[in-house]
Specification:
Length: 529
């Protein structure tokens, strides 16, 4: 991201770690960083920032989601977890080219890889495994639903962009780099030769890739990378096998993908794994393992898609499915909902009966929805074979992971002390038959005139971006920069998020994951579109 010499970047990162770092949400990172725990992941279920939150939470960056209690002082509302819903048009991308039939199992699926909105070309782009453990291919789409496989010149007459045989891979569209030759990053695990390390390649166009830039220290086969903009560093999520725990993740960060990648075996710190709260399949009874973890910055949080392995029978492909988790410091995870966010099908013959896993970039913001592209494997009855591997789509309301709900009787939610520099309050609300009113409280918990519940114009309707207004006030600028609390009064509705924007458009200036139509960079500067 910062195109300084790798050695200088590494020195800067070490200096930052030694001095400590405060994140945009006010969390002070513990020392040493990253934390180095024994592999007891059950002990890490409650992040330290939930037990010791900042005294005042800055909320200038991004929409503020209620996925945990970080923002909540007290509430009578009910928290509801929501799951993505599959598109009826699935699968959207299927193996139908000769090179996609290679390897013995027809394959056209992201095995992480990456699905992104490219603002330069105004296209959805999907990098995927073409042919089983064969090539990296590229598909494009104007609407995210109808996909084309362009004929390119890397292997003339095909859409192959990289010929290195591979297992899983990650493709990252780096919209923050100042080096155009590194706009696209490909990080893959070679197959079968060269096993045991990841290889990194760079490209200016996502089609023509340079030589291998670096090989990492030892890793397992299902390892991934992502850019954490809150920490300004690349993160390697390294597959590791812990005795008694099976597949887990270790953690390594580096401000540059070339620097800091020569780790020794056992040097990356323990990070995260499945635990006894992950329910095993009742038909297998096998303890769960963490098969994969893809991550991305979404609004003000780090979003994690956890591929949970719930066991494997002799007569079925791995029934992995995707669960969701959230982090506010980039290392500790909150996973309050252990049910499948995007599940496998239990009906044999479906495209996703065998195995479901996430794509690199995790999701795109498309209008009022989040679009999650996933791989699905049909499996073959009576064997562990993958069968036909394809790509499908699951959808969720924007910010729709968690809602705070009220019924006919009014409920309230009061935030912890917050501070902002913007002047326009917005909410993501589903209350067509109800109403929301908001008041601003001072440090002593008293309403600040004119921002009282009585003066608030009731907010009604169902939209992912609704402004909040008060009679007698043009905007929130009189309380900008002060320590305040918001108290939400809700009746018959669901509240998904809130944020204070400097713009009347409602632009959150938070991160938009893998992007989407209308966004020109990694953050929401568009607002109402």
């Amino acid at each position: 991201m910062f195109d300084l010499a790798p050695s200088l970047l590494l020195l800067l990162a070490l200096a930052t770690a030694a001095l400590g770092q405060t994140l945009p949400n006010g969390i002070e990172l513990p020392q040493p960083w990253p934390p180095d725990y024994e592999p007891n992941y059950e002990a890490l279920r409650v992040p330290p920032y939930l037990t010791r939150p900042p005294e005042v939470v800055p909320i200038d960056l991004g929409r503020q989601l209620f996925v945990d209690d970080f923002l909540i002082q007290d509430t009578t509302l009910t928290r509801t977890h929501h799951h993505a819903k599959y598109s009826a048009a699935n699968p959207l991308l299927k193996p139908d080219k000769p090179w996609e039939m290679e390897g013995g199992q027809p394959t056209a699926m992201p095995f992480s890889d990456g699905v992104w909105w490219d603002p330069a070309d105004r296209l959805f782009k999907a990098w995927y495994m073409g042919g089983y453990v064969r090539y990296t291919c590229l598909a494009t789409s104007r609407d995210g639903l109808r996909w084309e496989k362009p004929e390119l010149d890397v292997v003339p007459g095909t859409n192959i962009v990289h010929q290195r045989f591979r297992d899983s891979a990650t493709v990252w569209l780096d919209l923050e780099t100042t080096d155009p030759s590194r706009r696209y990053v490909l990080n893959l695990f070679p197959y079968p030769e060269g096993a045991g390390a990841l290889e990194t390649y760079f490209s200016a166009d996502g089609i023509h890739w340079g030589p291998c830039a670096v090989r990492t220290g030892p890793t397992g086969d299902r390892s991934t990378i992502f850019w954490n903009p809150f920490l300004h560093t690349w993160i390697y999520g390294i597959r590791w096998d812990e005795p008694g725990l099976g597949r887990t993740r270790s953690y390594r960060e580096s401000p540059d993908l070339i620097a800091g990648t020569d780790w020794a075996a056992g040097e990356p710190v323990h990070w995260i794994g499945a635990d006894h709260l992950d329910p095993p399949r009742p038909d297998y009874g096998t303890p769960c393992q963490l098969y994969n973890l893809d991550c991305v910055a979404y609004e003000s949080i780090l979003l994690g898609l956890f591929s949970i392995w719930r066991g494997q029978a002799e007569d079925r492909a791995k029934p992995n499915e995707i669960c969701v988790g959230y982090s506010r410091d980039g290392f500790h995870w909150c996973r309050p909902d252990r049910e499948a966010f995007i599940p496998v099908s239990e009906r044999y013959g479906d495209w996703n009966w065998g195995n479901v896993q996430s794509a690199g970039g995790c999701c795109l913001v498309v209008g009022n929805e989040l679009w999650f592209y996933v791989s699905g494997r049909s499996g073959r009855a009576g064997s562990r074979a993958s069968g036909v591997s394809a790509m499908g789509l699951a959808r969720l309301r924007r910010d729709g992971f968690v809602s705070m709900d009220a019924g006919p009787e009014e409920g309230t939610l009061t935030t912890r002390p917050v501070r902002f520099s913007g002047s326009h309050l917005f909410v993501n609300l589903d209350a067509p038959q109800g109403a929301l009113r908001v008041e601003v409280l001072d440090a002593a918990g008293q309403p600040v005139a004119p921002f009282t519940a009585a003066n608030c114009v009731p907010v009604k309707g169902n939209a992912t971006l609704l402004p909040v207004h008060w009679r007698g006030a043009r905007d929130l600028s009189p309380v900008a920069g002060r320590e305040v609390r918001f108290r939400f009064h809700l009746q018959q509705g669901r509240l998904y998020s809130f944020w204070v924007s400097p713009d009347e458009s409602g632009a959150s200036h938070g991160y938009v994951a893998a992007g989407g139509p209308g966004f020109t960079g990694p953050t929401d500067t568009a607002g109402r579109q």
